[in-house]
Specification:
The chain is mostly beta strands. It has strands at 18-22, 25-29, 35-36, 38-44, 51-57, 70-76, 79-84, 86-95, 98-106, 115-122, 134-136, 140-147, 153-159, 170-177, 182-183, 188-191, 200-208, 211-218, 226-232, 240-241, 248-249, 257-267, 273-281, 292-297, 321-322, 330-332, 338-341, 356-361, 367-374, 382-391, 394-401, 406-413, 421-426, 432-439, 443-450, 457-463, 470-471, 476-483, 492-499. It is elongated and about 75 Å long.
Length: 500
């Protein structure tokens, strides 16, 4: 099938991968948390070149993300977790001509989860159209589907109390009527996990040679993360832990790829087994893009790659909005070269709701995001520009403040201070201002130039390590517009939003 691939296969904010193989094509999904559209879907023929073909949550009516906030709280001595709500840990499966994506939606934020679980379906995965959610009752996260040979269907998940601080979790299962989401059995515990004292999450069941194999993600999702396996001759157990567990971990190793875990096994057309798993690329403590998707032959080794395939250009599938957007606030030219936003009072630091923002995931460690802002002579309370954004707690931007005729820099890191760091340069009126964010593995530099000037003026920077840590998401380049007073019909025009 393939022997060459570049890791990570899906770079930049692509945690919790799940893969299925159907009709000669691999399909892969990731968690998307607070971003809309949600649960991105990628396709590949060779496991190396991946193209985003849609999103499972692509209509604002499917579910509500307005309360998918981010909160910080301690998880141990000198450890602070930034927990973000939204869509957790999707699983993709295909059965009898129907594709299923099953997922958790959390809108509580912080240590207290308020969660519901659902799945969506489609007969034609290439259409980009998915059903409304089918909701089902399960007190936990990370649901998975298993279709048995006898026609029965089971849902497995990580049972957990409503408080994330109670880390002891286990894997539980029930039989489901797949058409309605109705439980056909009690929900029963089937495994405590390999460690028996840490999180048992991300379960997937596979069947081979009469055995049921249960794969789990354990020990949280950071430096101790691991993948473990157990097996049983009965789907209800008891499950016997594999004597060589964990089957995948980077803990205690000095590799660039760290925090590996939350994997999914799948076979290719030749019957060869593979695992897709999350991990980070730790560059001296810097990993702002967060958890990414890596690939290895089953029982193989996750190794760092060098590049993303250039064939990952998409339609508008890869554009991102913050939580549930007001889509009427956005307009696009036919070729997407001109994008207009209606500013709202909400800002990039707003904990809930949405703001006028349109972004794309950072896919490369070395890259440059640029955009041109068309200014106007009228007085306004609007400010608009270019940002590198991870969640309301950490972001930095360079923007034009219409009320002061100034170009401004702002850096927000609420892990360090509740007040942003700011700087501004007053400008003479000009028709166009060009903004640039230049990323390296260690720093993000923000610059501007006006009109036809050739020279960029650096206004501020943020170390990549400030975007790194115990969190769920990854960095996103985006254009945005906010206003101190929502002026009727006031649009902001951007041109040539690019990441190169």
């Amino acid at each position: 099938m393939t022997s060459k691939y570049s890791n990570p296969i899906i770079p930049g904010f692509s945690p919790d991968p799940s893969v299925c193989f159907h009709d000669g094509t691999f399909f892969l999904v990731n968690s998307s948390f607070h971003m809309f559209p949600g649960v991105p879907i990628y396709a590949s023929k060779d496991l190396n070149s991946w193209t985003q073909i849609g999103n499972a949550i692509h209509r604002t009516s499917q579910l509500d993300l307005t309360k998918a906030t981010s909160e910080k709280f301690p998880i141990g001595p000198q450890k602070i977790l930034i927990a973000t709500g939204g869509r957790f840990a999707a699983t993709i499966r295909q059965h009898n001509g129907t594709f299923y994506i099953i997922c958790t939606n959390d809108w509580g934020g912080g240590p207290n989860l308020t969660m519901r679980n659902f799945y969506v379906t489609t007969k034609d995965i290439w259409s980009g159209e998915w059903s409304d959610p089918i909701w089902f009752d399960f007190s936990g996260i990370d649901p998975s589907l298993f279709f048995d040979d006898d026609g029965k269907v089971y849902i497995q998940g990580s049972f957990r109390p409503s408080n994330l601080m109670e880390l002891k979790c286990d894997i539980r299962q029930f039989e489901v009527e797949i058409q309605t989401g109705t439980a056909l059995s009690e929900t029963k515990k089937i495994w405590d996990g390999f460690a028996g004292k840490d999180d048992a999450e991300g379960p997937h069941i596979y069947k081979k040679d009469g055995w049921y194999y249960l794969l789990t993600a354990e020990a949280a999702t950071f430096e101790h993360h691991m993948v473990a396996m157990a097996r049983s001759l009965d789907i209800w157990g008891p499950y016997e832990s594999y004597e060589s567990n964990p089957v995948l971990t980077a803990y205690g190793k000095g590799d660039v790829i760290q925090n590996t875990g939350h994997g999914d096994l799948f076979q290719d057309g030749d019957g060869k087994w593979w695992i897709a798993a999350l991990g980070i690329r730790n560059m001296d403590g810097c990993y702002p893009m967060g958890r990414e998707t890596f690939l290895a032959p089953w029982n193989g080794r996750l190794e760092a790659g060098h590049r993303l395939s250039s064939r990952m250009e998409t339609k508008r599938y890869d554009y991102l909005y913050i939580r549930t957007p007001n889509l009427e606030d956005y307009s696009f030219s036919s070729n997407n070269r001109v994008i207009k936003l209606v500013p709202r009072k909400t800002t990039l630091s707003s904990a809930t709701g949405t703001t006028a923002f349109l972004g794309k995931r950072q896919r490369l460690q070395d890259c440059t995001a640029t955009v041109t802002l068309k200014t106007s002579a009228k007085e306004s309370t609007t400010f608009a520009g270019l940002t590198i954004w991870k969640e309301p707690i950490r972001h930095e931007e360079i923007y034009y403040d219409y009320s002061t005729s100034s170009v401004c820099f702002s850096k927000t890191n609420k892990m360090l201070s509740d007040e942003p760091v700011t700087k501004s340069h007053q400008l003479k009126l000009t028709d166009t201002i060009h903004f640039q964010i230049k990323a390296t593995p260690k720093v993000f530099d923000l610059s501007y130039k006006v009109g036809s000037d050739d020279k960029w003026t650096k206004l501020g920077s943020m170390d990549a390590i400030e975007f790194s840590g115990y969190d769920f998401t990854g960095t996103i380049f985006g254009i945005f517009a906010s206003s101190k007073s929502e002026e009727a019909g006031a649009e902001v025009t951007f041109e040539e939003f690019k990441i190169t």
